[in-house]
Predict the 3D structure of the following.
Amino acid sequence: MTRLAHLWDQSRCIACGACIAACNAANYGSSTSPNVSWNWLRTNIRRIELSNGPRPMLYLLQCQHCENPPCVTVCPTGASYKDRDGLVKMNYDLCIGCRYCMVACPYDARWFNESMWTPVKCMGEECQARIAKGEQPVCVAVCPAGARDFGDLDDPSSSISRRLANSRYVKLLDNMGTKPKYFVVVGP
Amino acid sequence: MELQRREFLKLVGTAAVVSSAFGVVHVASASQQAAASPSGERVVSVMCGACGAGCGLLFVERGGRRYLLPNLEHPQPGMCGRPASALQMWSHPLRLKKPLKKVGDKFVEVDWDTALNEIAAKLKEVVERYGPESVVITRHDVHSWFLPLFQYLVGTPNLIGHEGTCHSASTAARAAVLGAGGPPIVDPDYENVSYLVLVGRNLDAAMGLVRRLAAARGRGVKIVVVDPRAPNIAFGSVEWVPIIPGTDAAFLMAMAYVIINEGLYDADFVKRYTNAPMLIKPDGTPLGGKEVGVEGDYVAWDAADNAPAPLDKAKDPVLMLSEEARQRVGGARTVWELFVERVSKYPPDVAAKITDVPADTIVRIAREFATARGVIEDGWYAAKNGNDFDTYRLILILNALVGNIDKRGGLCFQESAGFPNVCDPAGPDVVTVTGVKLPAPKAKRLDKLLYPLNTSTFDAVYEAILTGQPYPVKALFIVGTSPLQRDARYQMAVEALKKLELVVAIDIFPHDHVDYAHYVLPDLMYLEREEVATVRWTLHAAIQKSHKALDPPPGVDARHAPWMFMEIVRRAWRDRAKAVGYDERYADPHKFEEWERQLVEAALKKVADRFKVSVDDLKKALEEKGFVVLKRKSYGVRPYKTKLGTPTGRVEIYSITALKNKLDPLPDYREPLYTRPKAPDEFYLVNGKDNVVSSHFAFTPNAKYLGDRTVWMNPKDAERLGVRDGDEVELEGIDNGFKARARVRVTNRVREGVLFAHAFLGGRRSSLITERFAYLREGVNPQWFTTGKIEPVVGSAPTNSTVRVRRL
């Protein structure tokens, strides 16, 4: 089996915006149109600040590539599907733009792309092409802080597996039964 | 020291192998752009031009997709949100597209010949009427290599950069304490640090430093961030110390107090490599050898002979004199005694009252830093409070107290690549890199007359424009920099710009000053031109080549700024252009590239000679990989084997340079140069940059979301004043009365009693900003509220201020 997954290290992220903007450049042609769903740029990564707690906290949110993805369950046409590599993907030819998947996602990880008239999400097309060539997704490739990783959880020698073995991490909304594969590392 | 050819090839020889491992065809030069791989992929090595760090990047084009990636082989790889948005900058609707001429109060488009001819004629007239020194040129980082050639061809001493509101104070401190230069010349050895303290520094650049630090963080190295606001890096696992603005020196003094009183300093280093044993007479000047019958300008007490000895020859120099010894040297005291006395003013409980950092926190950080033999970062963007020279001197001295200078994991000196300047003063002349002698300007640089230890103090120019003192200033070239976002005398600057006879703005975007220009010339952005430069922000000696990745987009008739400079010179003074081999053959911008390459070639020849390699090998490596590492960092050289560039050749705790310039030779905590807040509605307004802020990045649509044009307020202050998140408030400068409105972000990222706003981001005012980009006008420019007072001698203008907040 292959279970591809993302790791984001909250303890090392410097919030430089490289991953957010690089996703826009690589997957959305540096589009300057707004992402109306998120009131944000056209990118698959959101930036959430918690600014009222005891100390400043940041979350970078994106598709969790759930093992039990609600977006796939609710999709009436099969456009949203879980691929054999463990990633949750979209077949845009089948999408009718009903946006059930956007509502069903407890992470609000999908946004509506008016240019395509479909919901979109991580991975974008360029990142999928990069993975097919054995390269890292662009958000991982650009990160200067060593705060991101991507790879196969079922391969114990993969970089992500080794990092997870040596880190404290949380999974977001794990109690929802979605079995997310976006690992938030909070420290060694 | 010299690199053997075989070693050199080892350092440069892996390009093709690594590229092919990723299935990438690396097409470096613009002339080969068409020769993309069968898969339609093109990869071009580029030096980032988004800020002064110059990180190594790769421009990637696959099918229709274009984006930037870090060049991971480069000694200083990128990247952050700024270059990730480079394509938005490239095709931006607000890019300056054609030469503009101010007619009445409107701009009209003119052709290049008209613009250049008229500028040249006016420049010549100004030089003939008022002298060449009446022409001033200002820059940030872009074109900084080429500009001295234009400067000396015009004949002016006044090429005055941005440093007065950037690193002038920290650079003056590096010169005074370590005899070193600008920010990248001295830097922590990030990947090997054992403990890192960042005082007012957020590592928003260079990204190669962040990458190297990531390796240390992987080992669990602790980072302490001392800053009134939590910069982006403080989101991660760091200890954030929210200090009162302008009190860093008191915090550092107390650290020194703890380290000295608990005996945590490296006594051997202090004795052998600092001037701590040097004897100082009661009048504050060093005891000279002649006065006690020994050689040399500086003297120590040698316990081995129980007699005075030259500072560098004492076998066992003492830090504390016995009373008997003191009598024999006329009552002199050691630098160490004077420093300890100074430090004794700041025990942790006293510093805690000044800084609002608890005394036990100061003690703990001092012990952790000293026992780990850690590093305190030595400052880049340093112009904050007008007492910054002392802060940075103390930082350097603390690194020396723990003996962590030029050691693995310490505060290290960069290996020099020796990439020559385009022009250098040589005796009575100025000599170009190609060996042409140009006359040296007769007048002195006007800001240097006032601030002799500065790097640059552009704020002094506005005063000169308005007063005509020390001499008239009538023409100004503003090249790739934004003075009205940058400088600390905003209102004076606006008045001064209106008074000039010729203002030429060369840029890619309409910054605020463009409205005051007589001519606006559109420049190329960094993806559209070539450049060879030193790799900054690495400890290795390295050079890099940025290749042209793109032509300007359709409709943008931009040209290379160095071509503009040479065309202006040729049209004003044909003979001067000819003296450097420039004539009408190069008026075609493509031909110009040939002329410019011969300057670069001459510079590369000097690098090649220095490292005993061939120019062709250098050029080949620059084409194939985009960089060459010439010499890897050797630790333990300065001050151990080579003396420092200070008067004593040592780390100067007691600065002879400061003394000669009538400054306190010892650092101290001094009041900031602005009025402190007193009433409940008065706040410090601090400012800073971050990885998603630069004057140019601010224009990108991404910056609408990634940039933050609000003013931050602590939740407790907000509750007290009844201000809610998103409310609009009025800010009024306490020292200058300037009023402006801004939206508040209520956030725990700023300490109580302090507001924070990003520099270079909010409050854009140019009339060329269209309604689609109206959000550029939101927020405040922190420079609206500054006092415009300038730190004496070092010429650093504080960019923090105090404001009164009124609910609307």
In short: Strands of chain A lie at 4-9, 46-50, 57-61, 80-82, 88-90, 111-113, 118-120, 148-152, 168-171, 182-187. The helical segments of chain A are 18-28, 70-74, 100-104, 125-132, 138-142, 159-165. Chain A touches chain B through 45 residues (CB under 8 Å).
